[in-house]
Automatic annotation (TrEMBL):
Protein name in UniProt: ABC transporter ATP-binding protein
PROSITE patterns membership: ABC_TRANSPORTER_1, ABC_TRANSPORTER_2
Domain annotation ABC transporter: ranges: 5-229
Key word Disulfide bond present: no
InterPro entries tied to this protein: AAA+_ATPase, ABC_transporter-like_ATP-bd, ABC_transporter-like_CS, ABC_Transporter_VariousFunc, P-loop_NTPase
Molecular-function GO term, any one: ATP binding
Organism: Roseibium aestuarii
Length: 310
């Protein structure tokens, strides 16, 4: 199957400063992939090359087999920038009709996207009266005109409230379920953790991690945290039988590897009524991100070569 996006050995410099360095990855149809990286890591530069706005200095990019910027690639690609800017005196429906004509799509069909993003009732209102969340949803509707195969979202939920974010990701999930590939950049690690299939981490222009979160957790070898809650009278005994650190006067915190986890849980269960509750914390995406970004700054070459799993 032709990948939705193939990036192979891409370099790009500005003013002789290397911004993207030997970046390679491929995305398959229907994947939801998060592109993470600190400010200035090169995410937007990568998007611009995928969109054909910038040429790589070397390496190849193909969008569903087509050269970025070619008509076929442009038709297959949708882009939603962080802050969508539409004319404030146009209505939602006018914006969609305008972009439908630009993309050679039937305006009537495109207008149904307003319903899909929950803007049907606001279709005839001017954008000056839209909230930021509504403008962002209109941006997504505009991006989805013509059923693109590759959807690029650059920090799409920044500035949105929690409910608008949830609604936004529900739409992204629907789009991916229909076969589109979604690549989204974000600094909001908690929200992409459960909503993407794969994580790419760009650090100082190099791709230092590319895999599922589960595989990256394994590769990082970060400990699992078990928080065992006991009674005031039992916490000392629980701590002495399990080891670990006492926290908050009534809890004991243990760290273990994935291989040790089941054995540790059995030990805790064997304490019976001495234990009141248990929380198991797998390393979060935040922990994984810190791990790979830290490795990258100390030993970029080793990280880049070891953790390109997918
Ligand atoms: N046209 C340009 N000319 C010179 N330098 C540029 C140009 N575009 C980007 N850069 C530099 O390239 C680096 C990467 O920028 P880029 O916008 O790709 O980062 P980013 O990962 O998207 O950051 P952020 O998360 O802050 O949006 C930055 O140091 C930026 O200053």
């Amino acid at each position: 199957m032709t990948p939705a996006l193939c990036v192979a050995g891409v370099d790009r410099s500005f003013d002789r400063r290397a911004i993207i360095r030997d970046v390679s990855f491929a995305l398959q149809p229907g994947e939801r992939v998060a592109l993470l990286g600190h400010n200035g890591a090169g995410k937007t530069t990568l998007f611009k090359m995928i969109l054909g706005f910038l040429d790589p200095d070397c390496g190849e990019i193909a969008v569903l087999g087509h050269r970025p910027g070619s008509r076929a690639a442009r038709c297959a690609t949708a882009f939603l920038p962080e802050a969508v800017a539409f004319q404030k005196n146009l209505t939602g429906a006018e914006v969609i009709r305008f972009y439908a004509r630009l993309k050679g799509e039937a305006p009537r069909k495109a207008l149904s996207l307003l319903d899909r993003v929950g803007l049907a009732e606001a279709a005839d209102r001017r954008l000056g009266t839209y909230s930021k969340g509504m403008r962002q949803r209109l941006g997504l509707a505009q991006a989805l005109i013509g059923r693109p195969g590759l959807v690029l979202l650059d920090e799409p939920t920044s500035g949105l409230d929690p409910i608008s974010r949830q609604d936004f990701y529900a739409l992204v999930e629907e789009v991916a379920a229909e076969g589109a590939t979604v690549l989204l950049s974000s600094h909001a690690l908690t929200e992409v953790e459960a909503r993407t299939d794969r994580i790419l981490i760009l650090s100082a222009g190099q791709m230092v991690a590319d895999d599922t979160l589960a595989n990256l957790r394994r590769a990082a070898g970060l400990p699992i945290r078990l928080k065992v809650r006991a009674g005031e009278e039992t916490v000392t005994e629980v701590a002495s039988r399990l080891g670990g650190e006492r926290v908050n006067g009534r809890s004991v915190e243990l760290l273990c590897t994935p291989a040790e986890k089941i054995g540790r849980l059995a030990q805790i269960a064997a304490l019976g009524d001495l234990v009141q509750d248990l929380d198991v914390h797998d390393p979060s995406l935040d922990d994984v991100y810190r791990h790979f970004s830290r490795i990258a700054t100390t030993d970029t070459g080793r990280a880049a070569s070891q953790h390109k799993g997918a």
